[in-house]
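Progress note, sequence design subtask.
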């Protein structure tokens, strides 16, 4: 089966961005992002209409992703380290590498039996909330998502909501690599955001790193569907003897170290970026 030219071009762009060290930049040609205003998002689902939309979005999302798993459009081969998630009490930030629009459902599937009545929230980019039409847009707006925004007042509401949710004991997924790089296997340098959220709210970070391998199923673009191993790693806690800035740096660097260690163990190769090879 001939491979999609668009996907091949995307992989070339990812390789180019790696060479240039642009690890947190978007490689997809997304339309210009619409600004998310405060009155356009109900972070804590206080409105009845928000509660109803969330209920149906999660029901439809469960069915949609369940069908993907059944049809092998998505494959979860194994979950490792679930004991690391189970030992965390109360609210927590979960970090994951970002390589596919649906890997958040893979993380959710892994931890769902152990949420003990709590919810699973996802921090998403502004454009994912404001730009997408149809069913995917409905999921982005109502499947327990917490959109970022360039609007200052909206971000104030975002941070207040995150504080409430974490105090309530909810688990919140954040992508510290920022941009999505399709099927990119290496861990990328991490931004501070996820760790600021954790330190500010005095909650742990649970690092999750998804490794991939070719299945025997071809997708419509001519590439093998990736079989995921979801690696849940030991939780990281803020240190009361460190300053806020020190804690953010420590947790970010330790998260990356655990990801790198998992990558090298699974793929049996040293983590080397093309930029390092050139140097």
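Output:
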């Amino acid at each position: 089966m001939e491979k999609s030219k668009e996907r091949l071009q995307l992989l070339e762009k990812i390789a180019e961005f790696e060479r240039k060290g642009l690890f947190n930049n978007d490689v997809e040609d997304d339309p210009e992002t619409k600004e998310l205003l405060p009155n356009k998002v109900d972070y804590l689902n206080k409105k009845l209409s928000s509660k109803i939309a969330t209920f149906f979005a999660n029901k439809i999302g469960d069915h949609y992703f369940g069908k993907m798993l059944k049809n092998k459009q998505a494959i979860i081969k194994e979950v490792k380290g679930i004991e690391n998630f189970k030992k965390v009490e109360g609210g927590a930030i979960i970090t994951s590498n970002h390589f596919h629009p649906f890997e958040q459902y893979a993380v959710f599937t892994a931890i769902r039996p152990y949420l003990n009545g709590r919810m699973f929230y996802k921090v998403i980019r502004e454009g994912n909330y404001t730009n997408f039409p149809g069913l995917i847009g409905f999921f982005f707006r109502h499947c327990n998502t917490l959109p970022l925004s360039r609007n200052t007042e909206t971000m104030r509401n975002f941070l207040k909501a995150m504080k409430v949710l974490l105090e309530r004991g909810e688990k919140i997924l954040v992508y510290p690599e920022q941009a999505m790089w399709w099927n990119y296997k290496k861990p990328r340098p991490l931004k501070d955001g996820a760790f600021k959220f954790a330190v500010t709210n005095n909650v742990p970070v649970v690092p999750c790193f998804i490794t991939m391998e070719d299945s025997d199923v071809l997708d419509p673009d001519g590439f093998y569907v990736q079989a995921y191993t979801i690696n849940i790693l030991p939780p990281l806690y803020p240190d009361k003897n460190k300053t806020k800035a020190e804690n953010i740096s420590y947790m970010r660097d330790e998260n990356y170290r655990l990801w790198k260690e998992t990558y090298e163990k699974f793929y049996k190769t040293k983590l080397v970026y093309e930029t390092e090879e050139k140097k």
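The two ends are 37 Å apart (CA to CA). Work on this subtask will continue into the next period as scheduled.
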